[in-house]
């Protein structure tokens, strides 16, 4: 069995570890519908995700052609309240993720999450999916007061997970740029919310979770 040269494998959440696109899209469209604005397709809303709930809504409003800071302030609590009640109606792990995580943990690798989703959504979602016990550190978008691509939340993720060499998986420039800023190795997943994984400049690209362990075993030391 080949050795994995990392102590920690870190994951982004939305679009990397879990497919939450249907629930996020439903939250955005519910919010837009309350003020009679045009709704968006799921694939369009996927591209709005990455910098937290408020920015997701801001992007949706701009795409609807009716953005103002005042409207964003008015509708952000509407979205958050609705999403809080529908966190896991359809959200699921990506295929192969559970098995990859189990193998990594079985080989002594610590797992961690660093997401720009606020803790008030992240922690209940992980508990509902029975994932929380698998992680040595969970960092949300508001945990340290800064979000990816800033290095600080990733540094805190590594610290809370016990330190050591870490590789970070993500699907957006926030994830890969954040890993670079934090001095971490990075893997861009091609199955996430952003379909330009080859343009993100990651150290490697992952097309399916079934290949994650093999990818890490073959990592250049």
From TrEMBL:
GO terms for molecular function: metal ion binding; phosphoglycolate phosphatase activity. Its cofactor is Mg(2+). It holds the Pfam family HAD_2. Pathway: Organic acid metabolism; glycolate biosynthesis; glycolate from 2-phosphoglycolate: step 1/1. InterPro entries: HAD-like_hydrolase_sf (IPR050155), HAD-like_sf (IPR036412), HAD-SF_hydro_IA (IPR006439), HAD_2 (IPR041492), HAD_sf (IPR023214), PGP-like_dom2 (IPR023198), PGPase_prok (IPR037512). One of its GO terms (biological process) is DNA repair. Keywords: Carbohydrate metabolism, Hydrolase, Magnesium, Metal-binding. Gene3D superfamilies: HAD superfamily/HAD-like, Putative phosphatase, domain 2. The keyword Metal-binding applies. GO terms for cellular component: cytosol. Its EC number is 3.1.3.18. Coiled coil: none annotated. The active site is at residue 12. Mg(2+) binds at residues 12, 14, 171. The keyword Magnesium applies. It is an enzyme of class 3 (hydrolase). It catalyses: 2-phosphoglycolate + H2O = glycolate + phosphate. Belongs to the HAD-like hydrolase superfamily. CbbY/CbbZ/Gph/YieH family. NCBIfam families: HAD-SF-IA-v1 (TIGR01549), HAD-SF-IA-v3 (TIGR01509). HAMAP family: GPH_hydrolase_bact. Specifically catalyzes the dephosphorylation of 2-phosphoglycolate. Is involved in the dissimilation of the intracellular 2-phosphoglycolate formed during the DNA repair of 3'-phosphoglycolate ends, a major class of DNA lesions induced by oxidative stress. This is Phosphoglycolate phosphatase. It comes from Sphingobium fluviale.
